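Morning!

This is the sequence you dropped in the shared folder:
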Amino acid sequence: MIVDKGSRNGGRKPSSARKNEMNENQSFHVKHHDNVKLQIVCGIRPVMEAVDSGKSIDKILIQSNLDGKLMQELKSKIREMGLPFQYVPVEKLNRMTDSNHQGVVATISPVVYHDFASMLQKVVDSGKTSFFVLLDHITDVRNMGAIVRTAECAGADAVIVPDRGSAQINEDAIKSSSGALLRVPLCRESNFKTVLNLARQSGLQVCAATEKGSVDYLEVDFKRPTLLIMGSEDTGISADLLKLSDVRARLPICGDVQSLNVSVAAGIFMYEVLRQRKG
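The structure's back. Tokens below.
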């Protein structure tokens, strides 16, 4: 069932009887951005069906203090599959959709997420000098979009994002990326330490882009297989990831402002990778 967010049953909310009738039906709120369809799935059973069907779930929002046998079954599926979820007040769900959501709303990602280990193996098997970009909790959708756009232009093999605490892959992000989010493989991972350890075991150097770096970015040998880490807008790269980095590289700063916008810094680093490999 496709529901237009603007339609409200003649301006009145559905009656209780109508709501009960809708309980077992699948309800989708679909937005369009060019050829991109962003879906919102409402209701406990519809969300369970979306999970079981293998749809690329972006996030599941659950009304706080919601309980019941069916809800427990859904929560069990969420935990089993490691899906990102968040408890929210019912008012937030009401703002997202006029459909009978039963306290559960899932957003379906317009992109297909990949497994980093599989992507890494694919690149290694191809004989290409690998280049991955890991975004450590970039929260601004415009920064996310701009970085992925540059990654696509610079020939990155994939962009790695966390499964929670990151910018949502929505219409604004896709627009900011000029559609690159639909073309660059996106890996969503729950444990960045595992990602870095696997990368290093596979022969990649892990380069952390940080103003606290000990070497200038021009001194880094980016002809080597590389995983580049860009940190969040406010706190930078987490301490745990810095410890696992092989090299910490900085950009020269001459002005009073001591840091660049993360998307600008990412562009400089990525094009240095491209320059060295083309040169």
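Headline: The chain has two domains: 16-108, 113-278.

More detail when I'm at my desk.
O.
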